[in-house]
C-alpha cells in the first residue's frame, strides 16, 4: 500500500523594503534622471555621454569627470536628506547662460511614508507591504522614457545653458552652485521661478517604493 505524499516546494516571499533600501533606489533614479535631462535638453555636448543599460533600457551617463564628480557630490547630500526624511523636493533648473533667465524647471516632489510607531496598545511595529522590484523599475522606466522624449513636447533651447540643483528641505530651500567644476556648496537661494504668465507645465509619471513616492513634472518658459 502506497501513501501519497505532497510534493514539497519552496515558497518565497518578497522582503519589505527599508528606508535605507528605498533611499538607494531614489538616489539612483535621480542620478540617471539628471543625466537624461542634461543629455536630451542639450545642456552638455552629446559626445560627453556614454550608453549604459539600466531599468531594462539603454540610458546615458556623463563621461565628463568634473560633471560626474559634481553630480555625485550633490546626490551624496540628497541621500542623507532622504535617509533623515528632511527633503521634500528636488528641482533641476535649466538657465540661459547669458541672460540668466530660467528656461525650465524639472520638479520632483518627494513624499515620505513610514509605518506607524509601536504603541502600548500595538507594541509590534507595523510593516510596510513589499512592492515587487520589477514594478518599481517599470514605473521609473516610464519617467525616464518621458525625459528621453521631452524634445517632442518642450521648446527647443536656442541658446547656451547651464543647470542648477535646488533642494527643498523641511527647514528652507537650498541651491547648489551650477558650474560643473565647482565643489557643491549648498546655500540659501531663491526658487529660480519662471516669470509668471510665461510658464507652462507638463505632468510626468510618478513612482512609489512604498516608502518614498516621487511625483515628477516639468515647467518651461514660453513666449
From TrEMBL:
Record lineage: Eukaryota, Fungi, Dikarya, Basidiomycota, Agaricomycotina
Compartments, as annotated in UniProt: Nucleus
This protein's UniProt keywords: Cell cycle, Cell division, Mitosis, Nucleus
Protein name: HORMA domain-containing protein
Native source species: Tulasnella calospora MUT 4182
Transmembrane segment boundaries: none
Gene Ontology cellular component list: cytoplasm; kinetochore; nucleoplasm
InterPro entries (UniProt xref): HORMA_dom, HORMA_dom_sf, Mad2-like
Chief place of localization: nucleus
Top-level taxon in the UniProt lineage: Eukaryota
Amino acid at each position: 500500500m502506497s501513501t501519497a505524499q505532497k510534493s514539497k516546494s519552496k515558497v518565497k516571499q518578497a522582503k519589505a523594503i527599508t528606508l535605507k533600501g528605498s533611499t538607494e533606489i531614489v538616489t539612483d533614479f535621480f542620478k540617471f534622471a539628471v543625466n537624461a535631462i542634461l543629455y536630451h535638453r542639450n545642456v552638455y555636448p552629446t559626445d560627453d555621454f556614454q550608453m549604459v543599460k539600466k531599468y531594462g533600457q539603454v540610458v546615458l551617463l556623463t563621461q565628463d569627470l568634473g560633471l560626474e564628480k559634481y553630480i555625485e557630490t550633490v546626490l551624496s547630500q540628497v541621500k542623507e536628506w532622504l535617509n533623515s526624511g528632511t527633503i521634500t523636493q528636488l528641482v533641476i533648473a535649466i538657465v540661459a547662460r547669458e541672460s540668466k533667465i530660467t528656461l525650465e524647471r524639472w520638479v520632483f516632489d518627494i513624499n515620505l511614508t513610514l509605518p506607524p510607531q509601536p504603541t502600548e496598545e500595538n507594541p509590534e511595529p507595523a510593516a510596510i507591504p513589499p512592492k515587487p522590484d520589477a514594478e518599481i523599475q517599470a514605473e521609473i522606466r516610464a519617467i525616464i522614457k518621458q525625459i528621453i522624449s521631452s524634445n517632442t513636447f518642450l521648446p527647443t533651447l536656442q541658446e547656451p545653458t547651464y543647470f542648477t540643483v535646488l533642494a527643498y528641505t523641511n527647514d528652507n530651500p537650498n541651491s547648489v552652485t551650477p558650474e560643473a567644476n565647482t565643489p557643491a556648496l549648498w546655500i540659501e537661494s531663491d526658487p529660480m521661478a519662471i516669470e509668471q504668465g510665461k510658464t507652462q507645465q507638463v505632468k510626468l509619471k510618478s513612482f512609489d517604493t512604498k516608502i518614498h513616492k516621487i511625483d515628477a513634472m516639468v515647467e518651461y518658459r514660453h513666449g
